[in-house]
Amino acid sequence: MPTGIITYDITHLRGAFANAFLILINALFFNIKLIGDYTQYPADASSKLLDGEETTFDFIIVGAGAAGCALANRLSQQDQWSVLLIEAGDIPETTTAVPALFPTFFESALDTWQYRLEKDKETCRAYKNKQCSMFRGRVLGGTSSINNLHYYRERSLENSLNLIYQSIEYYPNAEGENVYEGDIQLEKINSSSEIRSVLREAYEKLSFNEALENSPLGILENYLTIKEGERLNMARAFLTSVKSRSNFFLAKNTVVDSIVTNHPIDKRVKGVNVTISDKKVFLQARKELILTAGSINNAKLMLLSGMGAKDYLLTRKIPVILDLPGVGKNLQMHVTIPMFVSLNATFDSNQSSELEFIRSVFDYIMVRSGNLSTIGIHDFSLYASTAEHPTDPTIAIHHNYFHIQDRMLAAWLNGWKFEQKISTNLLEKNRNQPILLFLVTLMQPKSRGEILLNETHFQSSPNIVGNFLKDEENEDMRSLLTGFTLVTNATETAPLKDIGAELIDIGLPDCRSYKFCSLHYVKCYIKNMVHPTSDVAGTTARGPECDKYSVVKNDFEVKQMRCLRIADSSILNEIPVGNTVASDAMLGISVSEILKEKWIKDYVSPFKAN
Ligand SMILES: Cc1cc2nc3c(=O)[nH]c(=O)nc-3n(C[C@H](O)[C@H](O)[C@H](O)COP(=O)(O)OP(=O)(O)OC[C@H]3O[C@@H](n4cnc5c(N)ncnc54)[C@H](O)[C@@H]3O)c2cc1C
């Protein structure tokens, strides 16, 4: 099939058929323009900031990810307050709206902050330059605009934090099909693929049952952030309804370079220095400044602004505003081990044909249905415990299926930045066999990493020290070994055995001397393949003031600094056992209630926990 732009001579088309053809082309153009409709987002106020028309706001929020958008929505409900939401990126690219394309965003440099982790002699050796990489969304909606679309509400986290958002419950809409949570509409899709049924049967043979909403151990049909066939990023969920509010301002393509305080006069925040189109501007926060820039950038911004461990800041020649040793520490990530299994039977083969591909594109453009409106077998996951935590989900296994010669596999391998030889081996295998990918993910990591600075300006990447598998008790390795064994056990069950499921030896040079699948080999495999795929938390942890390493107090205010708060997953001492978008939105809403209680006389939060 030809790709790219090709000119065809169709002047021979005449009469009714030509008309029908034109109607079709018009309909395609009309509908394609509506994908990821940019008019749903609020207008950009950054030029007003540049012109000096607006430079003072009651509340300034840094970062339009899940937490920032939820917070901006709730604060701007108060007409008397002016609220500015600052975002370094722009409106999401159209392709991010198409659910099935989620694996391709890994390789896109657009819309993302791209990071390489500090090199470590033992881990991440299967990846280019023997180094792990990761990315976050630099776009309206933050990482929710490019993530895997799972929505996992962590009730135990809400209870342990005693957050005031906990009284909001799921409630079905009138038709009982979709689920709303506040402004977030969620869907369960359950793609009807044949391989999905086989995989579920394999897990059932290992005695896994359907997971329950409150205690997700077993097979979980994920709620997905999909609305009417398009990704519901958190900017769509929370900002569409506020775009007409005259007290709400959104500044896109605006980077916050540093936090400005009254230091040394007193310990109160004043505002932020930002860069817009290479110009520097100071913006004042009359009431409060709230950071929702994510676990990496919150810590980086604080360090650059002189808030961190005093000795460290002095070595970087940064004037010390606050001695807060916890900033950047306690970094936690849900790391993943990808495992590739070849099959000798093909599934859903109709989906891999060129004709079916064209049909999928057509269905999607015209009515937002079909294969492109789903995330394939990534829509269900297995949550499993380990011997050390028999009742908690410690391991999650997510899945992808690649048809023979699947164009998505190359995109996926590029995105994860695998060493060329490994990619070549896998693509070679995929020439004649489909591949089932198991993503074994550590949901309760014990290792702790750190965010440090490379240079002393915001545009440079931070130095991210992963410290994967370095916990003293070696629990992370044991948990991942359990996950690895679970996958190999699944391939031994009749449903997968019958279709020739076989773990692929991807040819890791470091592990060549060990017998394939021996304990030494598996440990070597885990060290080589460990990868920080998705969630990050903990770098500005919340705790009592007396705790040397806590950064924010119980009310999310930064210790020793008035009117500076942090409202996303970076304040969590322990990363949630599920993906973090739901927690981020919940944290944003919780902080909005705290701010209303502080700044509105006699305000009583309707969400107050009993
Ligand atoms: C590949 C991948 C898959 C994932 N899959 C899932 C999933 O399926 N389900 C799930 O719940 N979670 C998932 N996550 C995680 C989840 O999406 C994020 O943890 C969550 O959205 C928070 O992301 P964040 O820390 O980047 O912050 P966000 O809140 O998303 O983003 C912060 C925002 O702040 C902006 N910003 C940062 N610094 C500045 C600055 N100085 N000035 C102005 N703006 C700034 C950024 O551009 C960004 O838009 C996934 C993450 C990744 C990377």
From TrEMBL:
Belongs to the GMC oxidoreductase family. One of its GO terms (molecular function) is oxidoreductase activity, acting on CH-OH group of donors. Keywords: FAD, Flavoprotein. Residues 445-588 form the Glucose-methanol-choline oxidoreductase C-terminal domain. It comes from the Eukaryota. InterPro entries: FAD/NAD-bd_sf, GMC_OxRdtase, GMC_OxRdtase_N, GMC_OxRtase_C. Its cofactor is FAD. Transmembrane segments: none annotated. The keyword Lipid biosynthesis does not apply. FAD binds at V139, T143, V256. Residues 57-335 form the Glucose-methanol-choline oxidoreductase N-terminal domain. The keyword Lyase does not apply. The lineage of its organism: Eukaryota, Metazoa, Ecdysozoa, Arthropoda, Hexapoda. Coiled coil: none annotated. This is Glucose dehydrogenase [FAD, quinone]-like.
